[in-house]
Design a protein that fits this description.
alpha/beta, Rossmann fold, four-stranded antiparallel beta sheet, 9 helices, 36% helix
């Protein structure tokens, strides 16, 4: 029997992009996700906020099947990806992920970093892969960096290349894990501008972030996580101005006191 595949490109209408039910994950005695459930609509942008260790990064890694789960179920594009026999590579082609560390290959040029996965995972001819890469690099202000090596780029440029690399696989969902955390403050804006453009273009995104102002500006919905659970979720104007749960209020008060919102 062949492995089940995800919904074909362009068939997201009426289908949840992501659905998570009662997801649980532990590392030894440390329970990181404690029964988390969440649904994400096509073209929706959801920001995950919460203190370090609340489960944001682990949730994203479980969605992309980079971490095995203990129990629960995950659907992507209408297909249960926690079902036996799922094509893991197909999942990762449709669901891109970008980490806070850039993870670029230091011995490869920018162009080679971006074209490697399409050529290997999608079996795209080199000329076609380079054409796609060239369009993306130009779109995000990196056209003149295509022949550079990563150590010749600023942190912001490296993170933009990492985002371009994920987009080169033409994913339908993009997961972003604290993509500005490793950047100097003056470089954060250029990466956030890229994410804003993707949101404006309709990319479905699940974003773990410490940038509260950014979450307020870009998200359709903000989820506050604590101890492996979604404590509260609401449109950003509502969650930031009138949180209903005491735990959310305490977290936001700490953020305000620290001058981060």
């Amino acid at each position: 029997m062949s492995a089940p595949n995800l919904a074909p490109e362009g068939q997201l209408a009426g289908t949840e992009a992501i659905r998570i039910e009662d997801l649980r994950k532990s590392f030894g005695p440390n329970y990181v996700l404690r029964g988390m459930s969440l649904a994400v609509a096509p073209h929706e942008v959801i920001c995950l906020i919460g203190a370090s260790g609340s489960g944001k990064s682990t949730l994203l890694r479980c969605i992309n099947l980079l971490e095995p789960i203990d129990s629960g179920r995950i659907w992507l594009l209408g297909q249960e990806v926690t079902a036996p026999g799922i094509d893991v590579n197909m999942v990762r082609r449709r669901v891109g992920i970008v980490f806070q560390s850039f993870n670029l290959f230091p011995h490869m040029t920018v162009l080679r970093n971006v074209t490697l996965a399409p050529m290997k995972a999608l079996r795209m001819p080199r000329a076609a892969a380079e054409a796609v890469a060239g369009e993306l690099l130009a779109r995000f202000g990196l056209e003149d960096k295509r022949s550079e090596y990563p150590d010749r780029l600023s942190g912001g440029q490296q993170q933009r290349v990492a985002i371009v690399r994920a987009l080169a696989l033409q994913p339908q969902v993009l997961l972003l894990d604290e993509v500005t955390s490793a950047l100097d403050p003056e470089l954060v804006a250029e990466v956030l501008d890229v994410i804003r453009e993707l949101a404006a273009g309709g990319m479905t995104m699940l974003i773990a972030t410490h940038e509260m102002g950014f979450a307020k500006d870009i998200a359709n919905r903000v989820c506050f996580l604590e101890e492996g659970l979604i404590i509260e979720q609401a449109p950003p104007a509502e969650l930031f101005s009138d949180p209903k749960d005491d735990r959310t209020r305490r977290f936001l008060r700490r953020i305000v006191d620290a001058g981060r919102m």
